Protein backbone atom coordinates (compact mmCIF):
# COMPACT_ATOMS: atom_id res chain seq x y z
CA UNK A 1 0.00 0.00 0.00
CA UNK A 2 2.81 2.37 0.86
CA UNK A 3 4.51 1.58 -2.41
CA UNK A 4 1.28 2.23 -4.31
CA UNK A 5 0.91 5.59 -2.53
CA UNK A 6 4.44 6.58 -3.43
CA UNK A 7 3.86 5.67 -7.06
CA UNK A 8 0.69 7.71 -7.08
CA UNK A 9 2.43 10.75 -5.51
CA UNK A 10 5.27 10.50 -8.03
CA UNK A 11 2.85 10.46 -10.91
CA UNK A 12 1.07 13.53 -9.54
CA UNK A 13 4.34 15.42 -9.15
CA UNK A 14 5.27 14.70 -12.76
CA UNK A 15 1.89 15.96 -13.91
CA UNK A 16 2.34 19.16 -11.87
CA UNK A 17 5.80 19.70 -13.31
CA UNK A 18 4.49 19.21 -16.81
CA UNK A 19 1.68 21.68 -16.18
CA UNK A 20 4.04 24.23 -14.63
CA UNK A 21 6.47 23.84 -17.50
CA UNK A 22 3.66 24.26 -19.99
CA UNK A 23 2.43 27.40 -18.23
CA UNK A 24 5.92 28.87 -18.05
CA UNK A 25 6.49 28.06 -21.70
CA UNK A 26 3.25 29.73 -22.67
CA UNK A 27 4.14 32.79 -20.58
CA UNK A 28 7.57 32.97 -22.19
CA UNK A 29 6.05 32.65 -25.60
CA UNK A 30 3.55 35.43 -24.83
CA UNK A 31 6.26 37.64 -23.38
CA UNK A 32 8.51 36.97 -26.35
CA UNK A 33 5.64 37.70 -28.71
CA UNK A 34 4.80 40.92 -26.93
CA UNK A 35 8.47 41.93 -26.85
CA UNK A 36 8.94 41.16 -30.51
CA UNK A 37 5.70 42.99 -31.32
CA UNK A 38 6.89 45.98 -29.27
CA UNK A 39 10.31 46.09 -30.95
CA UNK A 40 8.82 45.63 -34.41
CA UNK A 41 6.25 48.35 -33.73
CA UNK A 42 8.86 50.76 -32.39
CA UNK A 43 11.16 50.15 -35.34
CA UNK A 44 8.40 50.35 -37.93
CA UNK A 45 7.03 53.60 -36.48
CA UNK A 46 7.69 56.29 -39.10
CA UNK A 47 7.19 59.15 -36.65
CA UNK A 48 9.71 61.05 -34.58
CA UNK A 49 10.17 59.59 -31.10
CA UNK A 50 8.94 61.09 -27.82
CA UNK A 51 10.35 64.14 -26.05
CA UNK A 52 12.18 65.53 -29.09
CA UNK A 53 12.16 69.23 -29.89
CA UNK A 54 13.64 71.28 -32.75
CA UNK A 55 14.50 74.87 -31.92
CA UNK A 56 12.17 74.63 -28.92
CA UNK A 57 9.26 73.31 -30.98
CA UNK A 58 7.81 69.90 -29.98
CA UNK A 59 7.95 67.52 -32.94
CA UNK A 60 7.31 64.30 -30.97
CA UNK A 61 5.08 61.81 -32.79
CA UNK A 62 5.15 63.77 -36.05
CA UNK A 63 6.14 62.39 -39.41
CA UNK A 64 9.07 64.07 -41.17
CA UNK A 65 6.74 65.99 -43.48
CA UNK A 66 4.53 67.09 -40.58
CA UNK A 67 7.59 68.27 -38.66
CA UNK A 68 8.86 70.25 -41.67
CA UNK A 69 5.47 71.87 -42.14
CA UNK A 70 5.30 72.87 -38.47
CA UNK A 71 8.83 74.34 -38.52
CA UNK A 72 8.27 76.19 -41.79
CA UNK A 73 5.31 78.01 -40.22
CA UNK A 74 7.85 79.86 -38.09
CA UNK A 75 11.16 79.69 -39.91
CA UNK A 76 10.15 80.07 -43.55
CA UNK A 77 11.77 83.39 -44.51
CA UNK A 78 11.02 85.23 -47.74
CA UNK A 79 13.81 87.07 -49.53
CA UNK A 80 11.31 89.90 -50.04
CA UNK A 81 11.37 90.72 -46.32
CA UNK A 82 13.44 93.47 -44.70
CA UNK A 83 15.36 94.17 -41.53
CA UNK A 84 14.21 97.55 -40.24
CA UNK A 85 16.76 99.73 -38.43
CA UNK A 86 16.35 103.10 -36.74
CA UNK A 87 18.75 105.85 -35.74
CA UNK A 88 17.14 108.85 -34.02
CA UNK A 89 14.55 110.09 -36.53
CA UNK A 90 15.87 108.20 -39.54
CA UNK A 91 14.99 104.69 -40.69
CA UNK A 92 17.07 102.29 -42.76
CA UNK A 93 16.34 98.91 -44.34
CA UNK A 94 18.41 95.86 -45.19
CA UNK A 95 16.82 93.50 -47.68
CA UNK A 96 17.09 89.81 -46.81
CA UNK A 97 17.94 89.35 -50.48
CA UNK A 98 21.29 90.93 -49.68
CA UNK A 99 22.25 88.57 -46.85
CA UNK A 100 20.49 85.37 -48.04
CA UNK A 101 19.58 83.77 -44.64
CA UNK A 102 18.75 80.05 -44.67
CA UNK A 103 17.50 77.61 -42.02
CA UNK A 104 18.59 73.99 -42.56
CA UNK A 105 15.17 72.58 -41.58
CA UNK A 106 15.49 69.34 -43.56
CA UNK A 107 18.79 68.53 -41.85
CA UNK A 108 17.35 69.15 -38.36
CA UNK A 109 14.27 66.99 -39.08
CA UNK A 110 16.46 64.16 -40.35
CA UNK A 111 18.55 64.37 -37.18
CA UNK A 112 15.42 64.26 -35.00
CA UNK A 113 13.95 61.34 -36.97
CA UNK A 114 17.15 59.27 -36.67
CA UNK A 115 17.16 59.37 -32.85
CA UNK A 116 16.68 55.78 -31.54
CA UNK A 117 17.16 54.40 -35.05
CA UNK A 118 20.93 53.91 -35.14
CA UNK A 119 21.13 50.38 -33.57
CA UNK A 120 19.59 46.96 -34.00
CA UNK A 121 15.91 46.10 -33.55
CA UNK A 122 16.25 45.39 -29.83
CA UNK A 123 18.46 48.33 -28.83
CA UNK A 124 16.30 50.72 -30.87
CA UNK A 125 13.17 49.45 -29.10
CA UNK A 126 14.74 49.77 -25.67
CA UNK A 127 16.05 53.28 -26.41
CA UNK A 128 12.68 54.26 -27.82
CA UNK A 129 10.97 53.15 -24.60
CA UNK A 130 13.54 54.99 -22.46
CA UNK A 131 13.02 58.13 -24.58
CA UNK A 132 9.42 58.34 -23.32
CA UNK A 133 10.69 58.55 -19.73
CA UNK A 134 13.79 60.70 -20.41
CA UNK A 135 14.34 64.46 -20.43
CA UNK A 136 13.52 66.21 -23.72
CA UNK A 137 16.16 66.56 -26.43
CA UNK A 138 16.33 69.91 -28.27
CA UNK A 139 17.97 70.07 -31.69
CA UNK A 140 19.14 73.45 -32.96
CA UNK A 141 18.58 74.35 -36.58
CA UNK A 142 21.76 75.18 -38.48
CA UNK A 143 21.60 78.72 -39.85
CA UNK A 144 23.66 80.24 -42.67
CA UNK A 145 23.87 83.72 -44.18
CA UNK A 146 26.17 85.89 -46.25
CA UNK A 147 28.20 87.55 -43.50
CA UNK A 148 30.22 89.75 -45.85
CA UNK A 149 27.08 91.15 -47.47
CA UNK A 150 25.59 91.97 -44.05
CA UNK A 151 28.80 93.71 -42.98
CA UNK A 152 28.84 95.72 -46.22
CA UNK A 153 25.17 96.67 -45.77
CA UNK A 154 25.90 97.94 -42.24
CA UNK A 155 28.94 99.85 -43.49
CA UNK A 156 26.74 101.37 -46.17
CA UNK A 157 24.24 102.53 -43.52
CA UNK A 158 27.14 103.90 -41.46
CA UNK A 159 28.07 106.21 -44.34
CA UNK A 160 24.50 107.53 -44.40
CA UNK A 161 24.18 108.43 -40.72
CA UNK A 162 23.56 112.16 -40.24
CA UNK A 163 26.52 112.47 -37.84
CA UNK A 164 29.13 110.43 -39.70
CA UNK A 165 32.84 110.99 -39.15
CA UNK A 166 34.61 113.35 -41.54
CA UNK A 167 38.22 112.41 -42.19
CA UNK A 168 40.95 114.97 -42.55
CA UNK A 169 41.72 115.54 -46.20
CA UNK A 170 43.41 117.87 -48.63
CA UNK A 171 43.15 119.24 -52.14
CA UNK A 172 45.04 121.67 -54.33
CA UNK A 173 43.46 125.00 -55.21
CA UNK A 174 45.66 127.06 -57.53
CA UNK A 175 49.05 127.47 -55.85
CA UNK A 176 47.76 126.48 -52.42
CA UNK A 177 47.32 123.19 -50.63
CA UNK A 178 44.13 123.21 -48.56
CA UNK A 179 44.23 120.78 -45.63
CA UNK A 180 40.93 120.23 -43.81
CA UNK A 181 40.67 118.90 -40.26
CA UNK A 182 38.46 115.92 -39.57
CA UNK A 183 35.42 115.86 -37.31
CA UNK A 184 34.35 113.15 -34.86
CA UNK A 185 31.16 111.34 -35.89
CA UNK A 186 28.91 108.38 -35.26
CA UNK A 187 29.60 105.01 -36.86
CA UNK A 188 27.66 101.75 -36.75
CA UNK A 189 28.94 99.21 -34.23
CA UNK A 190 29.21 96.48 -36.86
CA UNK A 191 29.81 93.40 -34.66
CA UNK A 192 27.06 94.27 -32.18
CA UNK A 193 24.52 95.12 -34.87
CA UNK A 194 25.39 91.97 -36.78
CA UNK A 195 24.65 89.89 -33.66
CA UNK A 196 21.37 91.74 -33.01
CA UNK A 197 20.20 91.23 -36.59
CA UNK A 198 21.16 87.57 -36.80
CA UNK A 199 19.49 86.82 -33.44
CA UNK A 200 16.37 88.59 -34.69
CA UNK A 201 16.33 86.48 -37.85
CA UNK A 202 16.99 83.23 -35.98
CA UNK A 203 14.08 83.72 -33.58
CA UNK A 204 12.00 85.43 -36.31
CA UNK A 205 11.36 88.47 -34.09
CA UNK A 206 12.61 90.85 -36.81
CA UNK A 207 9.16 90.94 -38.40
CA UNK A 208 7.57 92.71 -35.45
CA UNK A 209 10.23 95.23 -34.48
CA UNK A 210 12.79 97.74 -35.66
CA UNK A 211 16.25 97.70 -34.13
CA UNK A 212 17.92 100.81 -32.80
CA UNK A 213 21.29 101.21 -34.44
CA UNK A 214 24.13 100.94 -31.94
CA UNK A 215 26.90 103.45 -32.69
CA UNK A 216 30.24 104.53 -31.31
CA UNK A 217 32.25 107.71 -31.63
CA UNK A 218 34.61 107.38 -34.58
CA UNK A 219 37.50 109.81 -34.51
CA UNK A 220 39.19 111.05 -37.67
CA UNK A 221 42.78 110.16 -38.41
CA UNK A 222 45.24 112.87 -37.39
CA UNK A 223 46.67 115.07 -40.13
CA UNK A 224 49.79 113.32 -41.44
CA UNK A 225 51.93 116.06 -43.00
CA UNK A 226 54.70 113.66 -44.05
CA UNK A 227 52.20 111.48 -45.91
CA UNK A 228 50.53 114.48 -47.55
CA UNK A 229 53.90 115.83 -48.69
CA UNK A 230 54.90 112.48 -50.17
CA UNK A 231 51.62 112.35 -52.12
CA UNK A 232 51.74 115.98 -53.25
CA UNK A 233 55.42 116.29 -54.16
CA UNK A 234 56.16 115.86 -57.87
CA UNK A 235 59.03 116.70 -60.19
CA UNK A 236 58.08 118.57 -63.35
CA UNK A 237 57.82 116.48 -66.53
CA UNK A 238 56.63 117.26 -70.06
CA UNK A 239 53.95 115.15 -71.71
CA UNK A 240 54.79 113.01 -74.74
CA UNK A 241 53.65 109.88 -76.53
CA UNK A 242 55.14 107.16 -78.66
CA UNK A 243 53.57 105.24 -81.56
CA UNK A 244 55.68 102.06 -81.51
CA UNK A 245 54.75 100.95 -79.00
CA UNK A 246 51.80 103.30 -78.65
CA UNK A 247 52.03 104.89 -75.23
CA UNK A 248 51.18 108.25 -73.66
CA UNK A 249 53.26 109.80 -70.92
CA UNK A 250 51.31 112.54 -69.19
CA UNK A 251 52.85 115.78 -68.08
CA UNK A 252 53.62 116.22 -64.42
CA UNK A 253 53.31 119.59 -62.76
CA UNK A 254 56.19 120.21 -60.39
CA UNK A 255 54.77 120.67 -56.87
CA UNK A 256 56.43 121.14 -53.50
CA UNK A 257 55.73 122.90 -50.20
CA UNK A 258 56.87 126.52 -50.22
CA UNK A 259 57.94 126.02 -46.61
CA UNK A 260 59.63 123.00 -45.08
CA UNK A 261 57.64 119.99 -43.85
CA UNK A 262 58.59 120.81 -40.26
CA UNK A 263 57.31 124.37 -40.62
CA UNK A 264 53.97 123.09 -41.90
CA UNK A 265 53.76 120.64 -38.98
CA UNK A 266 54.42 123.46 -36.52
CA UNK A 267 51.79 125.62 -38.22
CA UNK A 268 49.12 122.93 -37.86
CA UNK A 269 50.11 122.09 -34.28
CA UNK A 270 49.99 125.73 -33.16
CA UNK A 271 46.93 127.05 -34.99
CA UNK A 272 44.39 124.21 -34.37
CA UNK A 273 41.97 125.29 -37.10
CA UNK A 274 39.37 123.56 -39.24
CA UNK A 275 41.28 124.43 -42.41
CA UNK A 276 44.91 125.22 -43.20
CA UNK A 277 46.31 126.84 -46.33
CA UNK A 278 49.82 125.77 -47.26
CA UNK A 279 51.51 127.76 -50.07
CA UNK A 280 52.93 125.64 -52.87
CA UNK A 281 55.87 126.06 -55.17
CA UNK A 282 54.51 125.14 -58.61
CA UNK A 283 56.52 124.56 -61.79
CA UNK A 284 54.45 124.14 -64.95
CA UNK A 285 55.53 121.72 -67.71
CA UNK A 286 56.19 123.08 -71.20
CA UNK A 287 54.12 120.38 -72.95
CA UNK A 288 50.80 118.99 -71.65
CA UNK A 289 48.45 116.26 -72.83
CA UNK A 290 46.19 119.02 -74.13
CA UNK A 291 48.98 119.85 -76.56
CA UNK A 292 49.10 116.20 -77.66
CA UNK A 293 45.44 116.24 -78.72
CA UNK A 294 43.13 113.28 -79.26
CA UNK A 295 45.70 111.53 -81.46
CA UNK A 296 47.37 110.33 -78.25
CA UNK A 297 43.99 108.92 -77.07
CA UNK A 298 42.57 107.60 -80.35
CA UNK A 299 39.53 105.61 -79.17
CA UNK A 300 36.39 106.28 -77.14
CA UNK A 301 36.28 103.66 -74.41
CA UNK A 302 33.09 104.83 -72.71
CA UNK A 303 30.72 107.79 -72.79
CA UNK A 304 27.56 108.81 -70.96
CA UNK A 305 25.27 111.84 -70.84
CA UNK A 306 22.63 113.13 -68.43
CA UNK A 307 20.20 116.03 -68.74
CA UNK A 308 19.79 119.02 -66.43
CA UNK A 309 17.51 122.06 -66.26
CA UNK A 310 19.34 125.12 -67.60
CA UNK A 311 16.84 127.35 -65.80
CA UNK A 312 18.38 126.40 -62.44
CA UNK A 313 21.44 128.62 -62.73
CA UNK A 314 22.99 127.91 -59.34
CA UNK A 315 22.84 124.17 -59.87
CA UNK A 316 24.21 124.57 -63.40
CA UNK A 317 27.13 126.56 -61.99
CA UNK A 318 27.95 123.69 -59.64
CA UNK A 319 27.82 121.18 -62.48
CA UNK A 320 30.20 123.25 -64.60
CA UNK A 321 32.69 123.77 -61.77
CA UNK A 322 32.87 120.03 -61.04
CA UNK A 323 33.11 119.11 -64.74
CA UNK A 324 35.87 121.68 -65.29
CA UNK A 325 37.94 120.11 -62.51
CA UNK A 326 37.57 116.65 -64.04
CA UNK A 327 38.04 117.63 -67.68
CA UNK A 328 41.47 116.73 -69.02
CA UNK A 329 42.39 114.37 -66.20
CA UNK A 330 44.81 111.68 -67.38
CA UNK A 331 45.15 108.40 -65.48
CA UNK A 332 48.21 106.28 -66.10
CA UNK A 333 47.91 102.48 -65.92
CA UNK A 334 47.36 101.40 -62.32
CA UNK A 335 46.39 104.90 -61.10
CA UNK A 336 43.20 105.48 -59.08
CA UNK A 337 40.90 108.46 -59.62
CA UNK A 338 39.42 110.07 -56.50
CA UNK A 339 36.47 112.39 -57.13
CA UNK A 340 36.95 114.32 -53.90
CA UNK A 341 40.68 114.77 -54.52
CA UNK A 342 40.18 116.01 -58.09
CA UNK A 343 37.11 118.19 -57.52
CA UNK A 344 38.09 119.40 -54.04
CA UNK A 345 35.91 120.73 -51.25
CA UNK A 346 32.73 122.44 -52.34
CA UNK A 347 33.08 125.93 -50.85
CA UNK A 348 31.82 129.45 -51.46
CA UNK A 349 35.42 130.51 -52.16
CA UNK A 350 35.60 127.89 -54.93
CA UNK A 351 32.48 129.41 -56.51
CA UNK A 352 29.87 126.81 -55.53
CA UNK A 353 26.23 127.83 -55.06
CA UNK A 354 23.34 126.65 -52.89
CA UNK A 355 21.18 124.05 -54.64
CA UNK A 356 19.04 121.01 -53.79
CA UNK A 357 20.83 118.11 -52.06
CA UNK A 358 19.87 114.98 -50.13
CA UNK A 359 20.64 115.40 -46.43
CA UNK A 360 19.58 113.12 -43.55
CA UNK A 361 17.04 111.41 -45.76
CA UNK A 362 15.40 114.68 -46.88
CA UNK A 363 15.71 117.07 -49.83
CA UNK A 364 17.11 120.43 -48.80
CA UNK A 365 19.43 123.16 -50.09
CA UNK A 366 23.16 122.81 -49.63
CA UNK A 367 26.41 124.20 -50.95
CA UNK A 368 27.47 122.43 -54.13
CA UNK A 369 24.07 120.82 -54.72
CA UNK A 370 23.89 118.92 -57.98
CA UNK A 371 27.50 117.82 -58.36
CA UNK A 372 26.44 114.21 -57.74
CA UNK A 373 24.97 114.38 -61.25
CA UNK A 374 28.54 114.72 -62.51
CA UNK A 375 29.60 111.83 -60.25
CA UNK A 376 26.79 109.63 -61.60
CA UNK A 377 27.54 110.60 -65.19
CA UNK A 378 31.20 109.73 -64.63
CA UNK A 379 30.24 106.43 -62.93
CA UNK A 380 28.30 105.31 -65.98
CA UNK A 381 31.04 106.38 -68.39
CA UNK A 382 33.54 104.38 -66.31
CA UNK A 383 31.23 101.32 -66.42
CA UNK A 384 30.92 101.56 -70.19
CA UNK A 385 34.73 101.81 -70.38
CA UNK A 386 34.82 98.58 -68.32
CA UNK A 387 37.20 100.05 -65.76
CA UNK A 388 37.53 98.84 -62.17
CA UNK A 389 35.22 100.51 -59.62
CA UNK A 390 37.06 101.00 -56.32
CA UNK A 391 34.47 102.91 -54.28
CA UNK A 392 30.87 103.85 -55.06
CA UNK A 393 27.84 104.70 -52.90
CA UNK A 394 24.19 105.11 -53.95
CA UNK A 395 21.96 108.05 -52.93
CA UNK A 396 19.23 107.94 -50.29
CA UNK A 397 16.66 108.56 -53.05
CA UNK A 398 16.71 107.56 -56.71
CA UNK A 399 17.86 110.73 -58.52
CA UNK A 400 15.96 112.10 -61.50
CA UNK A 401 18.85 111.99 -63.98
CA UNK A 402 19.68 108.24 -63.87
CA UNK A 403 17.90 105.01 -63.04
CA UNK A 404 18.12 103.33 -59.64
CA UNK A 405 21.34 101.36 -59.29
CA UNK A 406 23.13 103.62 -61.79
CA UNK A 407 23.91 106.58 -59.51
CA UNK A 408 26.91 107.53 -57.37
CA UNK A 409 26.90 110.04 -54.52
CA UNK A 410 29.78 111.89 -52.86
CA UNK A 411 30.21 113.84 -49.62
CA UNK A 412 33.50 115.62 -49.17
CA UNK A 413 35.53 114.02 -46.38
CA UNK A 414 33.35 110.93 -45.96
CA UNK A 415 31.94 109.47 -49.19
CA UNK A 416 34.11 109.33 -52.31
CA UNK A 417 33.82 107.90 -55.78
CA UNK A 418 36.95 106.11 -56.96
CA UNK A 419 37.89 104.02 -59.95
CA UNK A 420 41.13 102.54 -61.25
CA UNK A 421 42.68 102.54 -64.69
CA UNK A 422 43.27 98.80 -64.86
CA UNK A 423 44.22 98.95 -68.54
CA UNK A 424 47.74 98.85 -69.99
CA UNK A 425 47.33 102.26 -71.64
CA UNK A 426 46.62 105.71 -70.17
CA UNK A 427 43.11 107.14 -70.32
CA UNK A 428 41.89 110.71 -70.52
CA UNK A 429 38.60 112.10 -69.20
CA UNK A 430 36.68 114.71 -71.19
CA UNK A 431 33.85 116.42 -69.27
CA UNK A 432 31.47 119.10 -70.48
CA UNK A 433 28.30 120.80 -69.26
CA UNK A 434 26.40 122.73 -71.91
CA UNK A 435 22.91 123.21 -73.32
CA UNK A 436 21.18 121.06 -70.72
CA UNK A 437 23.50 118.08 -71.22
CA UNK A 438 26.28 116.90 -68.91
CA UNK A 439 28.57 114.58 -70.86
CA UNK A 440 31.65 112.60 -69.88
CA UNK A 441 33.79 110.66 -72.34
CA UNK A 442 36.75 108.44 -71.55
CA UNK A 443 39.31 108.03 -74.32
CA UNK A 444 42.26 105.68 -74.62
CA UNK A 445 43.41 102.81 -76.81
CA UNK A 446 41.14 99.88 -77.67
CA UNK A 447 42.62 96.40 -77.81
CA UNK A 448 41.53 92.94 -78.95
CA UNK A 449 40.55 92.20 -75.35
CA UNK A 450 37.90 94.93 -75.20
CA UNK A 451 34.19 94.13 -74.92
CA UNK A 452 30.98 95.87 -75.86
CA UNK A 453 29.32 96.86 -72.57
CA UNK A 454 25.60 97.02 -71.86
CA UNK A 455 24.16 98.24 -68.54
CA UNK A 456 20.79 97.35 -67.06
CA UNK A 457 19.05 98.02 -63.75
CA UNK A 458 15.64 97.07 -62.40
CA UNK A 459 13.55 97.39 -59.26
CA UNK A 460 13.29 94.00 -57.57
CA UNK A 461 11.34 94.76 -54.40
CA UNK A 462 9.39 97.35 -52.40
CA UNK A 463 9.00 97.48 -48.61
CA UNK A 464 6.87 99.67 -46.34
CA UNK A 465 7.93 100.69 -42.85
CA UNK A 466 7.21 103.55 -40.46
CA UNK A 467 5.10 105.41 -42.98
CA UNK A 468 7.88 105.23 -45.60
CA UNK A 469 8.39 102.95 -48.55
CA UNK A 470 11.71 101.62 -49.82
CA UNK A 471 12.72 100.21 -53.18
CA UNK A 472 15.49 97.74 -53.93
CA UNK A 473 17.30 97.88 -57.27
CA UNK A 474 19.79 95.51 -58.86
CA UNK A 475 22.22 96.78 -61.52
CA UNK A 476 24.06 94.53 -63.99
CA UNK A 477 26.91 94.89 -66.48
CA UNK A 478 26.84 92.62 -69.53
CA UNK A 479 29.92 92.00 -71.68
CA UNK A 480 29.57 91.09 -75.36
CA UNK A 481 32.18 89.80 -77.81
CA UNK A 482 31.34 89.72 -81.52
CA UNK A 483 27.69 90.19 -80.64
CA UNK A 484 27.60 87.28 -78.17
CA UNK A 485 27.04 87.61 -74.43
CA UNK A 486 30.10 86.27 -72.59
CA UNK A 487 29.55 87.50 -69.02
CA UNK A 488 26.98 89.13 -66.73
CA UNK A 489 28.14 90.86 -63.55
CA UNK A 490 25.95 92.04 -60.66
CA UNK A 491 27.22 95.55 -60.01
CA UNK A 492 25.19 96.37 -56.89
CA UNK A 493 22.04 95.80 -54.86
CA UNK A 494 20.86 99.21 -53.61
CA UNK A 495 18.04 100.26 -51.29
CA UNK A 496 16.41 103.69 -51.77
CA UNK A 497 13.84 105.61 -49.80
CA UNK A 498 10.84 106.50 -51.99
CA UNK A 499 9.71 110.12 -52.25
Would you give an account of this structure?
There is one protein chain. The chain has 499 residues and is of the alpha+beta class. Among the domains are: 11-76 and 105-140, no CATH class; 297-453, no CATH class. It contains 13 helices and 28 strands. The strands form ten sheets. It has a four-stranded antiparallel beta sheet. Helix 1 (2-44) packs across helix 5 (121-133), helix 2 runs antiparallel to helix 4 and helix 6 (147-158) crosses helix 7 (190-202). It is elongated, with a radius of gyration of 37 Å.
Descriptive key words:
single chain, 499 residues, four-stranded antiparallel sheet, 32% helix, 31% strand, elongated
User: What strand line-up does the widest sheet have?
Assistant: 8-9-16-15
What is the count of β-strands?
28
Percent helix, as a range, is: 25-40%
How large, in whole angstroms, is the Cα Rg? 37 Å
Share in β-strands: 25-35%
What's this entry about, in short?
Among the domains are: 11-76 and 105-140, no CATH class; 297-453, no CATH class. 32% of the residues lie in helices and 31% in strands.
List the helices and strands and how they pair.
Blueprint: H1 2-44, E1 52-54, E2 57-58, H2 64-75, E3 82-87, E4 90-95, H3 96-99, E5 102-103, H4 105-113, H5 121-133, E6 137-139, E7 143-144, H6 147-158, E8 169-173, E9 176-180, E10 185-188, H7 190-202, E11 211-212, E12 215-218, H8 225-232, E13 240-243, E14 246-249, E15 254-257, H9 261-271, E16 275-283, H10 289-292, E17 299-307, H11 313-326, E18 330-331, E19 336-338, H12 339-343, E20 354-359, E21 362-367, H13 371-384, E22 388-391, E23 418-420, E24 427-434, E25 437-444, E26 452-465, E27 468-481, E28 484-497
Parallel strand pairs: 1-6, 3-11
Antiparallel strand pairs: 1-2, 3-4, 5-7, 8-9, 9-16, 10-12, 13-14, 15-16, 17-25, 18-24, 19-23, 20-21, 22-23, 24-25, 26-27, 27-28
Amino acid sequence: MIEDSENFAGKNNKKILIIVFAIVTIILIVVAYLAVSFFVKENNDNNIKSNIYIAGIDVSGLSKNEAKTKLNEKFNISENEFINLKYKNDTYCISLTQINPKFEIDKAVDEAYNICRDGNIISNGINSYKRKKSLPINIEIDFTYNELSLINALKDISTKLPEQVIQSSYYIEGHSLIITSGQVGAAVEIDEMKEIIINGIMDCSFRNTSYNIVTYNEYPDPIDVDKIHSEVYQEVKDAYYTTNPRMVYAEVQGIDFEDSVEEVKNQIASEQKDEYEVPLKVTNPKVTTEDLGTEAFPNILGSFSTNYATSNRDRTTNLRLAAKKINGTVLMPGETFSYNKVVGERTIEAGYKEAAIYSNGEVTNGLGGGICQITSTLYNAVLYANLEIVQRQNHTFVPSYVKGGRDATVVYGSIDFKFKNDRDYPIKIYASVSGGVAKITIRGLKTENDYEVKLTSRKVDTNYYGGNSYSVYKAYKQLYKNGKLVDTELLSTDTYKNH
